[in-house]
Amino acid sequence: MSDSVSVTIDGRSVTVPAGTSLWDAARELGIDIPVLCHSPRMRPVGVCRMCVVDTGARNLQAACVRPCEEGMEVRTDSDRVVRNRRMLLELLMADYPDPSAREASTGDDELLALARAYGVTSSRFEGSRTPEAPRRDASSPVIAVDHQACILCDRCIRGCNELQHNHVMTRSGKGATTRIAFDLDVPMGESTCVSCGECQAVCPTGALTNRALEGLHLVEEETP
Amino acid sequence: MTDTNVSARVVESVCPYCGVGCALSWVVDTGRNRIVEARGRDGAANAGRLCVKGRYGFDYTTHAHRLTRPLIRREDAYPKGALSWDDRGPRRPGGPVDPETVLPHFREATWEEALERVAGSLAGIRDRDGGDALAGFGSAKGSNEEAYLFQKLVRAGFGTNNVDHCTRLCHASSVAALLEGIGSGGVTNIVRDIARADVALITGCNPTENHPVAATFMKQAAAGGTELLVVNTRRPAIADHAAMYVEIRPGTDVAFYNAMMHVIIREGLVDEAFIAERTEGYEALRDNVAAYPPEAVAELCGVSAERITEAARLFGRARAAMLFWGMGISQHTHGTDNARCLIALAMITGNTGRAGTGLHPLRGQNNVQGASDAGLIPMMYPDYQKVADPEARARFEAFWGRPLSPSPGRTVTEITDGALEGAIRGMYILGENPFVSDPDVEKVRKALARLDFLVVQDIFLTETAEFADVILPGSAFAEKTGTFTNTDRRVQVGRQALQPPGEARQDWHIIRDIAERMGLPMDYPDVAAVFDEFAGCTNSYASLSHAVLGSRGRWYPCPDPEHSEGEPIVFQETFPRGRALLVPAQPSPPVEPTDPEYPLVLNTGRVLEHWHTGTMTRRSRALHAISPEGFVEMHPDDAAAYGIGDRDWAAVTSRRGTIRVRARVDDRVARGSVFIPMHFREACANVLTHPAVDPYGKIPAFKYCAVRVERVAVEASA
Amino acid sequence: MELLNRLMALQHRHGALTDESLNALAREWRLPLHRLQGLRSFYPAFRSEPGAPRKLSVCRDVACRMRAGPRFADEVAEALQGVGGVEVEAVSCLGLCHAAPAALAGELPVSGGAGMLRDGMAGDRPLPLVAEPPAETSAVDPYAGADQRFGTLERALSEGSPEAVIETLEASGLRGMGGAGFPTGRKWRFTRAAGGTPRTVVCNADESEPGTFKDRLLLERVPHLIIEAMVLGGWVIGASRGIIYLRHEYEPARRALEEAVERARERGVLGDSVLGSGFAFDLEIFVSPGGYIMGEETALLEGLEDKRGEPRNKPPFPTQVGYDGGPTLMNNVETFALIPRILQDGVEGWQARGREGFSGVKFLSVSGDVAAPGVYCVPAGMPITEVIERAGGMAGGRALYAFSPGGASTPFLPADRAGTPVDFDALARAGSGLGSGALFVVGQGRDLLDLAIQQVRFFSRESCGKCVPCRTGSAQAVRKLEAAQEGRPEAGLTRLLEELDETLAQTSICGLGQVALAPVMSLLRHFPDEAARLRAEEA
What we know:
The complex is a heterotrimer. By secondary structure, chain B is α/β, with parallel strands linked by helices. Chain B is 30% helix and 18% strand. In chain B, strand 19 and strand 20 form a beta hairpin. The two termini of chain B are 45 Å apart. In chain C, the strands form three sheets. Chain C has a five-stranded mixed β-sheet, with helices on both faces. Strand 11 of chain A pairs parallel with strand 1 of chain B, so a sheet runs across the interface.
């Protein structure tokens, strides 16, 4: 087995070590493939599917988890790719609070930014949350939880369990009712959470935010 | 939303709390001169991670209790004594010192008046009683530049080597053993090197609470295959990730490690080539540990011979093994012996100088390494040049242009004794709070009250400041620029993000102004120039400057900082003293054994959310909300035996005093011992602790004294 | 397996995984609580509070729904009101489609109307136990008597070679019978060639596709063939461990398997030296804590690793990185069961069993509007019309309206395609697929839209929730379809469904999401009357 592979991405070729993901290979070429779940600090999980690209296979492939194969020809922005990313965004935006707590304070909500970039200004879908499902958890003194803004990207879970190794967070439930949860599904403030804030720091949406920023809207000064 | 708009500036700095030295950015609300958010940066020590203190504990900086003007004690506030509360009267509710109870005893003054008073009083004592009647406590929370200037002031301005800081209270014994054994007090391998270790011995420390971000790398290593061998007297959370957890009885470390070495030697798990080429004194060590087969110490240590053997084999068979330790090793009257054992254990198995090996005493304060490097210790000039060495002294006399005292100075606890005896008459305390941090606070209180003159420079009214004649308002971490050296020997720049409040000043300016009024010029254009002077009188820092450190910092030594991050692993070929010296150690009995009257062993330590005497963290909204009060942790069996339930109020009494505190019943603490965190002044653990010190490191035995615990019906508050 | 087995044991003992018991387990095993919550909340066999002492699990999927109506579970619950100690729960397909409407009373398969079930649970009458269906399982058993069993294995071990086994399987044209139809010989070759450890053979006995029950009958009746083929697989790929992943609703199958494993051990077929060959192999039965998704091969592996059963991103495939990171040979029950026969027949003999150029035989689970639902072993290439005849012809005098040849994931086809032969490629060309070989037959007069929506609802309910398109898209589709079914189709619905279907098919991680809308999409393509019900009246 060869140690390196060459792929062509959007017409440009690149040679990378075997096992490199398409997402990383594209980055080497300066091609940014959009992501919500992936972070270079974390093990890729390929759950948001926003990074799907066209490799000529029957299905689109999630670039963050798809290893490069020799000779692969990849399109990152074909009509098919863009169309499907838009549908994914439309699904996620169905009942998304806008502005989310993150957008309102630090203005860096990654879902809203992507929705804007892809022109998804409205959704043909309604919220799918059932009324009895809990929406907010304000039991932690430092982190606010808004399940309605959660897209289950698993960044918080990986941040908690695989970066900080605090082992507090999980997906709870299954299918459409899946939520993030703490310990045996207790309020965050009553769990074994040590408030390291990694979950809040890595969250791409308004699901986990810094309570200290509630009511503030940060406008970053230009660095001279 | 316009009225909530915040004009924000991002400042790259480092965390002010522990020795891990996490790189972070502060988002500063420039309009209101406050930090609104902390974000982890991709630092060498933290890879973007932070803990609760670093991420949420910065708001102490803008707390209403901040000192903003110089204060001078009113004439009617003498004789001196504690002002904020007194055990003899009704107790006040918990929390940090309330300025309202203390401020009436002081009056505001101009900087000019205050500085004149300070310089005049200190110079007066110096001129009347000699320089050795003065002493200074610097701080491991200050920068390298501040530490350097402070010790320079004490040595060249006061004319004494009576300068020390809280390293005495944490790792002085480790440093004594390391200097003796290998000739350097710094760590040999950085924390993150644990990823390359087969086995890591983690002993006498509780990293998930005290070095939380370092702990994440330990846990990550464990998840990746490194086998953790955790040894402690109280089960730390890191034990959940361990291949093996061994609980030993308090104070039996030497016996335990001697037995481990016994097994390693007996079973041929030693690295003979390493012993032959890199060490000396092996025969004496071998002969010493021959008397400690596991069977002989099992009962003393409370660990079966099989478990000791198993631990020895786990460590001895590792291709690369690393050692981490904390104050469970160092804070004993035999702390130096404990550290000697760990050094010997590493050496006979050839575990230094390679990836995934080495000695790593986890440093507590963010700059305890740097403050020591800068000479904030009584027997050493910067870079561990001995004051007793005439050549070194001559060099510094020439460099600083002042005659210097040839005799090593007093340590923290010796300074306290000196004050009690009347030998120390005046003190300058910068950013330390010995009233809460030092053992047997009743004794410290008497000592502080006896001083002719005490100047305290701090950002809050501390318990120690209540004894001051003059209080000078300094600047918080985020209000100044300076370099800090973390547990990994990584030198990083903390950058000013905020303006000091009111008339509060940069600490190095205050040191400079006192020095100049005492006749010692300190004419530096900026703090980077102070660094350059400090670096110039060391080897370790010589190649570094603020400019070259940039936003990422460097590990020292770093011969080529333009192209290199510095050395994550040192002593690959040789040790500073040449060969490592193996020093045999024998177990010694505790200085205060338990007895029927005081049947329990008290262990003290820290909790995740708080920092030392709580002056900063107890003024952080989030940290206080998460962890508002102290506790005494007891094993369920002991709690049952003494009729104490979870959250009941209990009185804990030693021969030196009594505190009242809530009980926390938890089996992480062993039967027969109790644990009390040190941060809470209203339940001050150091009322109870014993002032006996280690003969080499002069470190107090915070981890061992005898107490009894009784249930109290209701909290006896006012 | 260790943790899920322990959780299953706790669930059985206490009727629930309570916070108290999980806290105790977390302390005992030094496990983080979140991990236990993740498992407890994912697997349907687990619950956090105990229910009534007895449980009646009523199937809600297509075959039963078509027979008993969409409210059947509710009707049973209503009938049982006043009968103490019984809890009625609507569940996904139980693999009892031949006996629709079906339910499980505890572990006992039962069948009948709400009144019969009530009386049975109340003890007023005997429980209406499910009658055995016609099942031609013995058709593939090459052994006339019990003492001849494992002869194929014995011969292979003494005279054959792993390479020869693979060559025979490749030449036979055998494809995976679980639904995906991957060539079996090639899978064995890949797994044998893959490096690494541990090496494992897994039998996927998590049959859960609505309408599918052939594996259950094979497990109950010819377990020795499955065991034999697994041992052979172990020998071929160099594995000494086999695991049968069995759905927990198949208790009779578990007992049959356990007995067969015990006998195999007694005969030396399992153990340190298989039939004296020096090759060691043993196998264990793992009872799934439930969920259709666990039949997805990588979800199954996650389950074996005591994780939430969320499918993995592929590649790598299990042949390279499977159970515990090592190469894993995983086949479906039927696939394994056919292998001894194929090796006995030889390539030509096997091929000759098929018709008109198609090779071998295929087990079909036939349910719905046929007179004799059951498991039929038919020659490959037999037209669907003939299969229906084999199953007794259309029931109740209905004419054929639609059929789905391979389970919920294979699109419905109209009656005029019923001449299509039973074959993977032929059915794919006809616009559907052979899938898991579950022929579901729908007669005229049935509400096909309701059935198709039920299939989509099944996928939505069984979605693991891992990836965005499946988790959100399938649920959104169900909501919109339900509104349409109630007579309120929204404008542009069919277009939206087309778009959603593309995204589900194109971006979902696993097959479940990829096919979740297929049943309804097939109505849009082939059934104009049903499709019209999804279009808003354009004024």
